[in-house]
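Handout, section B. The chain below has 517 residues.
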Amino acid sequence: MSADILIGVDAGTSVIKAVAFDVSGRQIAIASRRNTYTSLPNGGVEQNMQRTWEDTAAVLREVAETVGANRVCALGVTAQGDGTWLVDHEGTPIQDGWLWLDARSAAEARAIETSEGIDTIYRHTGSGVNVCQMRTHFLWMERNSPELLERASTAFHCKDWLYYKLTDIRATDPTEGVFTFGDYRTRDYSDEVLDALGLNAYRSLLPDILDGARDTHGLTVEAAAATGLPQGLPVSLGYVDIMCTAFGGGLYDEAALPGFTILGSTGVHMRFARTVDDVRLNTDRTGYTMAFPGTAYAQLQTNMAATLNLDWILSVGAELLNAQGGDVEPADLLAGLDDRIVTARPGAVLYHPYISSAGERGPFTNPAARASFTGLDQNTGWFDLVRGVYDGLILAARECYAAMGETPAEIRLGGGAARSSALQRFLASALARPVRTVAQEEAGAAGAVMMAGLATGLFDSPSSAARAWVEPLLQEPVEPETELTATYDALYAAYTETRAAFPKIWEAQKSMREAVS
C-alpha cells in the first residue's frame, strides 16, 4: 500500500491532537489528550515539557495504529504560541515551559513599551509588546532568575520543542522567531531589534529560523520508537498555531482578500496582505505581523481571552447549580444555549471580556485590564449576563478590526465557538459583513499538514494548497441582519466609551489586589 496519509500535530492550550488526512484533505482519524498547566502565585503559567512530548508521542502512536504507520508520508507540527521553553546543551528542559498565559513579566513589558528603542522594535517586527512573549520573559529572567538563562542552551517555543524531540533539530519558524526578535521583511532575526531590547547577550539562545514549507527533517530512531511512525519520515516545522489555523481555515485567498476570526481560548482577528508592501503598521504599535508560506502576510489583533470568558461564566453557573445539590458540568449548560441567548436582551449589560489574569493585548496592551459587567439593574437575569458575554466577544472583535483599518469585505470564522450559530449571526451583524465558516474541524492541524505538503511536493504553491483543501469546504455565508447591525452600532459606541474610562480603574484595582494579597 502506498504512503498516502499526512498527519498534523496541534498542541494547543487545552488539548494536544494528532489528526490524519488523506491527500485530498479529508480527515480520516484523530487522537487527543487533555493538556494541563500550572498557575503560580506570581502570575506565572507553566507546562511540563516532558509530559507535553509524551502526550504528543502518545496521540501520534494512536493515530499511526489507526491508519497504518507505513501509509504516512509526512508529518506537520504546530502548537500554542508565545512563551519560553528552555533546554540545556543536552536538550534537557531547564524547568517547565512558560505559556502565553504567563503574566509575571508585566513590568518588563511596560519597560519595553516606554523605552527609547520601541519605535525600532515595532518598525522591524511589526508586532506590539505583551507580557507573554519570549522577549519580556528574557528580561524578567535576567532581573529575577538569571541562572535560568545561564544554564540554557536554546530557547524554544512549544512547537519548536516538539520538533526537536521528533528530529533532533533545534529551530524555530518565520512567525515566532520574527515577531519577537526579527524583521518581518527579511523573515530573519534583526540585530537592531536585539540591540533595542538590550538582549544581545542572549543571541546564542535563539535557534536557527527554518521554513517548514520548504524544508523538512527526518524522524529520529528514538522518536520513531516513541510514536510508532517510520524512521526518516519527513517532518515539517509548521508556523505558530494561529497561522496554521488561518491557512487551513480560509484566510489565504489572494482574490477575496478576506478577514479571519478565530474564537478559541484566545481571540484572533486577521487581515490578509498579498505581499510585504501591503502590510500597514498602526500608530498605536499594537497587534502582530506574521508571514504566510510564500510572499503573503497576515496582520493580527489578538484578544488575550475569547472562549475563556464563556468557560468562566458557564463554570460559575455550574457551581451555583451544584451548590444546590445539582450534578452539572459547565459543558452541560451549552445545550440549547444559542436559542436562549438569541432571545435575551442585548444591552441589558455591557461586558468587557478581559477575563485573563494576563490582562489584554489587542487592540490595546494593558496587563492590568480585567473583565467587568456594567449597567446591571434589578431586572438583569442570568441569560442577560451570558448574552452580555457573547456580545462582549463580538464587540471586542469589532474593535480589533477597527484597529487594522477598513474591515475586509468577507470574514472567515474558525475556532471552537464557530460552531455557534448565534455567534455567527452576531459577528456578521456587528461587522456588517458576511461570515463564512469552513467545514474543517481541525484547521490548525490541516494548516500544518498543508505546509508539510508544500515541503514534500504535494502542492506547488500556497494558493494551490488553499484551492485544493480549503475552497471546497467553504460554507454559505451568514449575512448581516439590518436590525441587529443597528443594535450593535449602539452597543459598540457605549462599549468603546466605557472601555476608555477603565485604565485608571484597572490601576486602582491592581493596587487594591496588591494591598490585600
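Note. The CA atoms of residues 64 and 228 lie 6 Å apart. Compare this with the example in section A.
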